[in-house]
């Protein structure tokens, strides 16, 4: 039986203890479970490198997405503007908002 290419698959990777500690701290500051934070991080990195957005200026697109989201523009329209699916736009917005929270929390420490 052929597996659907969009069906999620488990991935195993190795990180060192220092990386794990830092990622767990970031996840906690965002109020996210460790695995969810890591999935968001992977999704953003994948979209930047080889994902559906296929754009080397992901930072610029993320800024545009956040500005549009803050202005009340729908996720569907944001995806159209930055050139990706609605689901990817939502993941990118969530991942970027979480990263902003982390940076603000680190700055306040």
Keyword list:
mainly alpha
Report on the structure:
The chain is mainly α. It has one domain (17-108). The chain has 5 helices and no strands. The longest helix has 23 residues, at 86-108.
Number of strands: 0
Shape annotation: globular
Proportion in helices: 55-70%
Low-confidence segments: none
Question: What distance lies between the first and last C-alpha atoms, to the nearest angstrom?
Answer: 52 Å
Instruction: Enumerate how many helices there are, as a single number.
Output: 5
**Mean pLDDT over the residues:** 77
String of helices and strands: HHHHH
Number of domains: 1
Question: Gyration radius, to the nearest Å?
Answer: 15 Å
Q: Please state roughly what percent of the residues sit in beta strands, choosing from under 5%, 5-15%, 15-25%, 25-35%, 35-45% or over 45%.
A: under 5%
Largest sheet: none
Secondary structural class: mainly alpha
Topology (elements, then pairings):
Blueprint: H1 17-30, H2 34-49, H3 58-70, H4 75-82, H5 86-108
Helix pairs in contact: 1-2, 1-5, 2-5, 3-4, 3-5, 4-5
Describe what is shown at a glance.
This protein has 109 residues and is mostly helical. Helix content is 68%, strand content 0%.
């Amino acid at each position: 039986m052929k597996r659907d290419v969009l069906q999620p698959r488990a991935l195993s990777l190795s990180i060192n203890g220092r990386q794990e500690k830092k990622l767990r701290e970031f996840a906690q500051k965002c109020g996210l479970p460790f695995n969810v934070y890591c999935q968001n991080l992977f999704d953003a990195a994948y979209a930047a490198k080889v994902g559906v957005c296929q754009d080397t200026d992901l930072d610029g697109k993320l800024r545009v997405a956040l500005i549009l989201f803050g202005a009340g523009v729908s996720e569907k329209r944001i995806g159209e503007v930055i050139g990706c699916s609605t689901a990817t736009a939502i993941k990118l917005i969530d991942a970027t908002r979480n990263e902003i929270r982390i940076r603000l929390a680190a700055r306040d420490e």
